[in-house]
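Morning - 5-O-phosphono-beta-D-ribofuranosylamine inputs below, output right after.
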Amino acid sequence: MTKRLVILVSGRGSNLQSILAACRSGQIPDTQVVAVISNRPAAGALELAVLAGIPALTVDHRDYGARVDFDAALQRRIDDYAPDVVALAGFMRQLTPAFVQHYEGRMLNVHPSLLPAFPGLHTHARALEQGVLWHGASVHFVTSALDAGPAIIQAAVAVLPEDDEQSLAARVLDAEHRIYPQALAWLLAGRVAYAAGRAQWRDPPETAMREAIAPSLEM
Ligand code: GRF
């Protein structure tokens, strides 16, 4: 039975692109992206969806006064597509507890840091400012606390002496594009589930759950 994936976006859609490629290649097996929904009508990700022949919708948060009203409208549109899993891919809205609860255990997010370090915004600038030697990306179950759900996979990205925010962000984004499809493949295959606030592995991957991606240090 083909699994149904709805992807929520706000920006250019590079994570959407890597997920679509993984569905096409079979890295995410037996899965179809059935809709792409954005809160921003101008999101480049919507064009990517249209080009891929996938229903591309906007639920514009500016049309709603209260956050709960936007979330309720978004939930109705998502559920029109009866998803098995919802993937937040560059989706820049904080979601209300009722919405999160409705999708508990079947909604993931990708965050550009090694959570619990650097939840929230501007993670690369903060990592550089704090002088950390390792940064990275996390894919986690979405819970009502921002960027705090249990991780399914993480990628470590070394901070290089010559890094600035742009160079570091680029390598973290590459890591996101590798780990998000892997996390979705594991969740959709039922190898991991959300239970009692944790990621419970029914069939843990042979490799460590954390994927350390050492940079190619060409000197
Ligand atoms: C990514 O860095 C992701 O971590 C953050 O949004 C950024 C843009 O994502 N949540 P995309 O290129 O729109 O997928």
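Note: The CA atoms of residues 4 and 32 lie 5 Å apart.

O.
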